[in-house]
Amino acid sequence: MKNQQNTRCIAAIGSLTLSLKAQRALQSAALPAEVIALAREETRQGCAYGVSFPCAERGRVKAVLAAQRLSPTQYIERNVHRDLS
Asked: Where residue 47 falls among pLDDT bands split at 50, 70, 90?
């Protein structure tokens, strides 16, 4: 089982405008979120933007985005390695 504390999920949304709307909605729901650019290889539909968030909050994120009528094209997981030195 993956350690969700070290894993970030990304809701691939497409446009920068919609990604910023998603970020605001998530932050209003007290969920940490960051807009990021996605490489062409990371998504099914080419270059896009998305919102990064802790994977442990995936269920809450999906509910908030659905309430805002935002439909990510996919969810991506990334392992995060932080240098603690």
From this structure: low
With contact defined as beta carbons under 8 Å apart, do 71 and 23 qualify? no
Q: What is the DSSP string of 8-57?
A: EEEEEEESHHHHHHHHHHHHHTT---EEEEE-GGGSTTSSEEEEEEEGGG
Predicted confidence (pLDDT) per residue in 16-36, tens digit: 999 999 999 999 999 999 999
pTM for this model (two decimals)? 0.81
- CB-based contacts of 75: which residues, under 8 Å, 6+ apart? 9, 10, 11, 12, 58
Which of 6, 9, 80 minimizes the C-alpha distance to 51?
9
For the chain, the first-to-last Cα distance in angstroms comes to: 26
